[in-house]
Amino acid sequence: MKKRFHRKDVTDIMDSAARTYNEFNYNRHMEELRRLYKGAFDYAIASGPHKWSHVHCPQRRYRLMTTNVAECINSCLKFARQLPMMTLAEFIRNMLQKWFHDRHAVARSMRHQLTDAAHLVILKRVEKFNYMTVNPVDWNIFSVKLKGNQWTINLHLKTCTCNKFQMDHFPCSHALPSVRYMRCYS
Q: Whole-structure pTM over 0.70, yes or no?
């Protein structure tokens, strides 16, 4: 979108539509895009929302916006592609070897059971949950309220009506106070 349309307002709306977790907000962003720039809207729809939007993606993304490993590796080989074949193969071997070594070193130095990035996401979500009201429906289902909004969480199925829990496979900010409630009263 950035390369094709060169408009920040268009890319901001597309980013919001791509990252939203529910159909209502997706439709709202896409309608805004349609009104703002019909050509960009048509392009986005023609490219297939299942390829770029969280809410329409059939695969698990775990908070990632791309699932294409080849796309990631191609970007790393941008300049190395001009090398002779054997030199390119050696470059790729060295690059992957370094990646595995570096990731292993990071994993060994972890201070939590989660990665540092996952831990930070949880900490951000924990900040919000002190202001939420939790009402149990049964041992697995909870109703969580905040400022007039309400979500239903099923801890057994790992779902929330916000859709973040089931789409990211990571507890949303509504599931966390439900877990705390369950631990305090069980």
A: no
